[in-house]
Amino acid sequence: MDREDYMRLALAEAEKAVGTGDVPVGCVVVSAAGEVIGRGRNRREARQSAVRHAEVEAIEAACAAVDSWRLEGCALYVTLEPCPMCAGAILNARIPTVVYGAKEPVTGSCGSVINLFEERYGFKPAIYGGVLGSECAGLLRDFFQDIRTVP
């Protein structure tokens, strides 16, 4: 599988969030062997929790799958540029590769607002943005159009 294939899996997770009223963001964590070991989607509305972001869910599932908080050798694929909280979780889990789809101009922490991965935390993952960016942004655009047009 390639980056686009894994991003399509993250998009499938994002689409599941739409039915719950959550912003459609999805994420998968992939092992060095190419196996999906964690999946997540936004569930802030469903769980009424500010920390239920797609990346946090996927990282938690991946840590449980490998029985370690260290996700060295893994890659994280997410449909929307990570926020500061999720960037912190990525750093703490030592995920060496982050691939995102759409830019996040309000809270994006891979360069849109700030690049937290360029700060002196002692760990710098490789960042790849814009993978299936139009599809990821389109899902978000459609979601917000739909909720704005509801009578």
Can you walk through the features of this model?
The protein is of the alpha/beta class and 151 residues long. The longest helix is centred in the N-terminal third of the chain and has 16 residues. The chain has 5 helices and 5 strands. The mean pLDDT is 95. A 5-stranded mixed β-sheet has the order 2-1-3-4-5. Helix 1 runs parallel beside helix 5 and helix 3 packs parallel to helix 4.
Approximate helicity band: 25-40%
Largest pleated sheet = 5 strands, mixed
Residue share in β-strands: 15-25%
Q: Looking at the structure, what is the overall shape? A: globular
Output the helix-strand order. HEEHHEHEEH
* Rg: 14 Å
What strand order characterises the main sheet?
2-1-3-4-5
Q: Roughly what is the average pLDDT, rounded to an integer?
A: 95
Cα distance spanning the termini: 43 Å
Unreliable sequence segments? none
Number of helices: 5
Structural class: alpha/beta
Number of strand elements = 5
